[in-house]
Hints:
49% of the residues lie in helices and 8% in strands. The chain contains 15 helices and seven strands. Bound molecules: thiamine diphosphate and magnesium ion (MG). The site of thiamine diphosphate has 15 residues, from strand 4.
Amino acid sequence: MNEPQPPTTATELPDGAVRLLDADGTLQEDTRFTPYLADLDEAALQQMYRLMATERRVDSEGTSLQRQGQLALWVPAIGQEGAQAGALSALHDSDWIFPTYREHLFALGRGVTPGQLFELFRGAAHAGWTAEDHRLQPYTLVLAAQTLHATGYAWGIQRDQAGWDADRLKREGQIALACFGDGASSEGDVHESMVFAASFNLPVVFFCQNNQWAISVPASTQTRVPLAQRAAGYGFEGVTVDGNDPLAMYAVTAWAAEQARTGAGPVLVEAHTFRVGAHTTADDPTKYRTRDEEAAWAGVDPMARLEKYLRATGAAGADPDAFFADVAAEGERLAAQSREAVLAMTGDAIAPLEAVFDTVYAEPHPLVAEEKAWHRQWQAGFADAAEATDAADATDEGSRA
Length: 401
Ligand SMILES: Cc1ncc(C[n+]2csc(CCOP(=O)(O)OP(=O)(O)O)c2C)c(N)n1
Ligand SMILES: [Mg+2]
């Protein structure tokens, strides 16, 4: 029997993984996936880079704000921008994304503001945004639960295509993207989702960002084979992609989405990437991984790779330096705006806890109304306690005086 492999310190890709852009920014030919790059014009490439750079800037602002006590927690996504930018750019605006808690580039790319993201991590909002407005579900912290939601939604898309909304759905060819991590791949929910999606040939793309770590547990403990190989057991195709290659991510996701969109059923895309920062601001990665590993991955940074490509091909425009300076300035602007937004999140700007009961169903529901009344009563109990504490403090102060 094979022993579980020790934690990887290598950035090498598993056999058969797709890479189109070399570390030095040179494009390689791949007969299967290169044709999907045809739709990526200069504007789309620039937008991809802009999203990556602005996400990275906003992301570091999140860590600073948490360190200054302005956010309860922040979940850095630095290092994973290439995987997310490539995948997002390959989707249609009408496709639905079911994120984990680390898909900040998806959120920003779908029009969620940095302030809305930070509101969530400050604990000042319950969900942060209206899913329908962005075709992006709320962040899900219960690992892998969103893979079931995505699969259920994809089932709905498929049923609707045969039903009342057939014209719109056929035209849009909508799909669901189910995000999860290497650690979450061990959850039963992923297994159930994949069985169900395969059984009903659902329009869902499973998108696994294998960032090598599930907090302190290495990916090698979750699986003995590249995760994408698991798809074969469910009866659909899985592809491992160099997740730090935004172009390969674009091409493979475009192919996967086309499969799902055209009724060929689900696909698993595994992005082989790396979480450069801590798991969250509550984590200290020096306790479980080496500086060598971090340094090796720093050498295959997705942003640096795309920048080299844009400069080498002229896709950054006539004045590349001006383009990159403009992108950097936009990042600074967004970071400053988000900081102002966070500092203004006081008083009425904080969503009352009770508001969660008002968004469970579209229509009033007797059980929810009962729970809301119970919650109100429970909270009133604290008011009494607070009054009693205030009164006791006043007495203490009186007796001290
Ligand atoms: C059902 C469930 N179990 C455990 C946790 C605690 N937990 C939060 S994040 C995490 C690691 C997840 O790792 P991975 O899926 O690789 O995603 P990553 O954080 O690396 O993006 C764990 C165990 C949780 N949130 N939900
Ligand atoms: Mg992980």
